[in-house]
Amino acid sequence: MPGPVFLDGDRLTLRPIEEADLEFLQTQINDSRIWGPLGRSKPLNREQEREFFENRICGDDSVDLLIVADSTPVGTIGLFEFDWESQKAELGYWVAPEHHDQGYGTEATERVVRYAFDQLGLHRIAARVFEFNEPSKQLLETIGFSREGVHRDAEFVDGEYRDVYWYGLLEEEWRARSE
pTM of the prediction? Predict the structure, then answer.
């Protein structure tokens, strides 16, 4: 498994994304079961994936981790859109389709939320999902996120405008739930 473990979980580890992971990332992000729920509409070639890696993942403005189960990459999770003054960030994730319904997304999200509150000192984490992405809505609600609002017809996906649901989790809610 390339790269050191950053966060350890019960069944998986979260580690920094490395250049060696680009093929996995490009393959998965071009799978319609991934890009559809993320609201992407264009394919990414190898150079574009490398550019994303160099500009975002290698930058200081986000925390991007590979979700690994039994030495096998299964997805990604990260924090971005940091506002350090307000102590908040946005959460994003995806799990490769062949690894859906195994709890990897939930476990990874719990680890990253704990890290965000305990280590980064965040007060609030936001997440957004499309109206049709029931598994992602369920994941967020299971962890304690509250649906805070809807941006109606916010994105054009699969030939139609779709609502985007916004979720939020406050540190005090997380801590109260974890006790």
Answer: 0.89
